[in-house]
Automatic annotation (TrEMBL):
Pfam families: Aminotran_5 (PF00266). SUPFAM superfamilies: PLP-dependent transferases. Keywords: Aminotransferase, Transferase. Gene3D superfamilies: Aspartate Aminotransferase, domain 1, Type I PLP-dependent aspartate aminotransferase-like (Major domain). Residues 22-340 form the Aminotransferase class V domain. InterPro entries: Aminotrans_V_dom, PyrdxlP-dep_Trfase, PyrdxlP-dep_Trfase_major, PyrdxlP-dep_Trfase_small. One of its GO terms (molecular function) is transaminase activity. This is Aminotransferase class V-fold PLP-dependent enzyme.
């Protein structure tokens, strides 16, 4: 990205510790600043009480950064072990009764499906909305909502197709009901704007578009309609008082998002996430989005010129960084690209190419030269 602020942040390709490709929807290359952040954590480990103070301060700053990315407040952010854990915690925090239902859709990642299937034993109905030409819209989901719908879960951007859902429109309608909206921003936060105040809960992993590491999950809680949502789990970090005789008799959850935090987070991940979110904020999400949508449009044009069935919408407002096309031998295509040092995801009958801020036209030219021989 030669004309945006991210170029000033990365300075040169040497700031990335490995060659990058089109793999951000699965893993991102490690920025040297993130590598330095992990080393900072390892140094703090040797400082005793001073190290714990550094950990607490880094976690505080990390939540401030995440709140800025999500247009919320730091106390509305919890850091857990993964997005999967976050979704499961939410699933177990809702008082379901037999006959209640949840609404999901066919383009959802397994972590957004399995926790609800586990509730079928309690008599909870799982309503799966079919896609229409590889897209699911707000109206499609709303058509399955009734007065027994406790929750709608959807990804902001599909891991499978790259289509972006208008969650703001969905939430506007759901606020007229008692149905909560859980938004999985794993494939969007860090590359396009996300507003946590336009959903009840936003969940995100840390090792994809946020440029951090495994071992973390973001759980952002909009307090507007979730004050009565209490975790089914409890740990020493979840509660207000941890000392005194009363701790053997009762406890009170924190009123804010900390009630979902059981114990210490993965501090290497927190250090990395604080540094990577600082990079993203300095670059500017609007600037990153502009770059990614422009480069993604060129990528779609390239794929269509090869006669490939692209499932990602061409219209910029309906996509983010993931671009997918159908192929019956998707895994083999990805392997052939890998042989040429181009990283892509090939599974589920589609090849996914992900564009982030560090990608540029030289990556497209590499792909243009190599892809025809890999199909």
């Amino acid at each position: 990205m030669d004309d945006g602020r991210i170029a000033k942040q990365k300075k040169s390709l040497s700031d990335w510790t490995i060659a990058h490709g089109f793999f951000s929807g699965a893993e991102t290359p490690t920025h040297t600043a993130v590598l330095g952040a992990v080393n900072d954590y390892l140094t703090a480990r040797s400082l005793g009480p001073g190290g714990r103070e550094r950990n607490a301060e880094t976690e505080r700053l990390c939540k401030i950064n995440l709140a800025m990315l999500l247009h919320g407040q730091p106390e509305q952010i919890a850091i857990v072990s993964s997005a999967s854990e976050a979704i499961s915690m939410v699933a177990r925090s809702i008082d379901f009764a037999p006959g209640d239902n949840v609404v999901i859709h066919e383009l959802e990642f397994p972590s957004g499906v399995l926790p609800w299937l586990a509730l079928k034993a309690k008599g909870v109905e799982v309503r799966v909305v079919a896609h229409k030409e590889w897209e699911v819209g707000a109206e499609d989901l709303l058509a399955s909502v009734d007065d027994r719908t406790k929750l709608v879960l959807t990804s902001h951007v599909s891991y499978l197709t790259g289509a972006r859902l208008d969650y703001r429109k969905l939430y506007e309608r759901l606020t007229q009901t008692n149905t909560l909206l859980v938004l999985d921003a794993t494939q969007s936060l860090g590359v396009v704007p996300v507003d946590m105040m336009q959903a009840d809960i936003v969940i995100c992993s840390t090792y994809k578009w946020l440029l951090s590491l495994h071992g973390g999950g973001v759980l952002a809680v909009n307090p507007g309609r979730t004050a009565d949502l209490l975790p089914a789990y409890v740990g020493w970090r979840s509660v207000e008082e941890r000392a005194g005789r009363e701790r053997f008799e009762s406890f009170a959850y924190h009123a804010d998002a900390r009630r979902f935090e059981l114990g210490y987070p993965s501090y290497p991940t927190v250090y990395a996430l604080e540094r990577s979110t600082r990079l993203l904020l300095a670059a500017g999400i609007d600037e990153i989005e502009r770059h990614v949508l422009a480069l993604g449009g060129e990528l779609i044009a390239l794929l269509e010129s090869l006669g490939l069935a692209v499932t990602t919408p061409a219209e910029p407002a309906r996509r983010a960084g993931n671009i997918s096309f159908l192929h019956e031998a998707a895994g083999e295509v990805a392997e052939r690209l890998l042989d040429r040092r181009i990283f892509a995801m090939g599974s589920d009958g589609r090849v996914r190419l992900s564009v982030h801020a560090f990608n540029d036209r030289s990556d497209l030219e590499r792909l243009r030269a190599c892809l025809p021989a890999c199909l």
